[in-house]
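ok here's Kinesin-like protein, seq below lol
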Amino acid sequence: MEYKVFASEAPPCFSEENEIITVLDTENTKMEEKKKVEQDVARLMKEKDDNHNQILVLKQELEMARKTHEERMETEGKLAQQELQQRLEEVMQLLTESKNTVKELEAYSESKCQRWNKKEHIYQVFTDFQLGALRELRFSSQSIRQEILKTQTSYSDEFNRLGLKIEALENAAENYYAILAENQKLHNELQELKGNIRVYCRIRPFLRGQTGKQTIIEYIGENGELVVVNPSKQGKDGHRSFKFNKVYGPAATQVEVFSDTQPLLQSLLDGYNVCIFAYGQTGSGKTHTMTGPESASEDEWGVNYRALNDLFRISQTRERTYKYEIKVQMVEIYNEQVHDLLSSDGPQKRYPSLAIVIYFVFLDFHTLGILSTSQTNGLSVPDATMHPVTSTFDVIELMETGLRNRAQGATALNERSSRSHSVVTIHVHGTDTKTGASLRSSLHLVDLAGSERVDRSEVTGDRLKEAQHINKSLSALGDVIFALAQKSPHVPYRNSKLTQILQSSLGGQAKTLMFVQLNPDIGSFSESVNTLKFAERVSGVELGAARNSKDGRDVRELMEQVASLKDTIAKKDEEIERLQLLKDLKNVYHNVNGDKPGSNSLRSKSPAKIPRPQPNSPKELLKDSTGLQKSVSGSNISNRPPKR
Ligand SMILES: Nc1ncnc2c1ncn2[C@@H]1O[C@H](COP(=O)(O)OP(=O)(O)OP(=O)(O)O)[C@@H](O)[C@H]1O
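and the structure came out like this:
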């Protein structure tokens, strides 16, 4: 600041001077103040500079701090960014997963929705259908109700009429049993026409290890013709012809063989005695035919098992008409001594020691006794144990015991089985469920000892004795059958134990069947011819009548008789079936009317009724009564149903 002293301003005298001094003082003060101000300004400037510097420093610090902060922030930012990025990715992934889940859920719910819709639709359709059906049902039930009312009235009229008819028919049905009996009689006549003694020839196949062997069998005819050839003779002389009821070739099965035996079992249950035996040299297949091979399967079962099996089957189909009791005995005849094969005593008793044998031989006591067949119970060896059987299983067990005992005896007495006769006897006791009448019959199944001839010069001692016994009993058997076939007044049953035991089943109205077993090997030619000759002799006369009349007249007459009998049987069967149907109808009638079968309310004067056994069905009835199986007037039937 500049302070000026203006010249124009003339100092006034003294006052003026004072004024000047005062002004000067003021000026000085002003100057001082100015200085002070300048100092202050300088100080302030300095302060300002200081402050400025401080600001600069602060600025620098601030800048540094800012930079540090920025760097830290940047690093933290980066880390945070990375973390965020990672999280973001995770979230994105979760998001994608959730999206997928949502999509899946959407799809699932969509399909469920569709299914439900479908179901709903189906239910809807079903409900509509049910409702429709219900409506229809309601309509039809109403119309049915009306129908029923109508039918009830017409039925009651109809039943009244039917009742009258049934009453008449019931009288006709009374003849049911008489017709059945007549049917059985006709069947028996048919069996008799076929021959009460039949001979079936069976040729054994070559066994394993016998390949390349030459056979003696040249021809097997359909009707039982057999031609064997003798290799040592040429031309006509080398051939021998035989004729039997049937010839089974080597390929014949057990089933085929049994099928022709079956009719005899029906006869057995009708009260006729039957005897089936196998004859032939050792190893020709007798046991195979009668029993079957060892541990045989059901297919391989022989006649014994099949026969019993069939007996159970047939007796079951007849259970309404007859109650059957079946019992079995099994004995062996060795050296004219009879032994029980089913005894529960040890083999010692069955096969006594030599000393005991000698002792008892002397007393003639050690073998089982044979009684005459006139016994009321029909037992020819009453002391042999008797075993009731109710099933094939029982039979198998018994047979096994018997065969085991026979085998034990065989070991003890040197392969005795082929040199002894085994006889299985089946006793049948039937009771008519309606009349209480009873019938008894027996079936003998015999596996004979080997029929080969033993050269007396070659064997001695026990073998000779055995051979003599076998020859004696077999020729006694041949004689008996021959005498029977000849209808001779005297039949030599007493000539052997075998024929005594079989007496009840040989002769009279009994049916006899012999299986002639042949070994086809050329080495057995002469034995086979002997066997065939025996069989020819046995079957000779009765069958011969038909066989010898080569012009065919007798045969034709017999065939015509057979045909007419068959016709009659068929007619009777039809009648039986018709009567059975009527019976069934009657039962239906009773059931509908709520009557008891025996109390016909419509019958005014019907006699008191005994409930009558009925066959299961017309078909079963036919099965029972048709075929060539039946016969009726057996000698053992004590009280038969009345004949018409
Ligand atoms: N039809 C057949 N098919 C197959 N094998 C058979 C036939 N017949 C017999 N055989 C077999 O021949 C052999 C002798 O048969 P089997 O024992 O039955 O003769 P067999 O005449 O009873 O003899 P044996 O007099 O010694 O008792 C046995 O091995 C048997 O299995």
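fwiw The pocket of adenosine-5'-triphosphate is lined by residues 204-205, 207, 280, 282-288, 293, 417-418, 450, 517 (CB under 6 Å). kinda neat tbh
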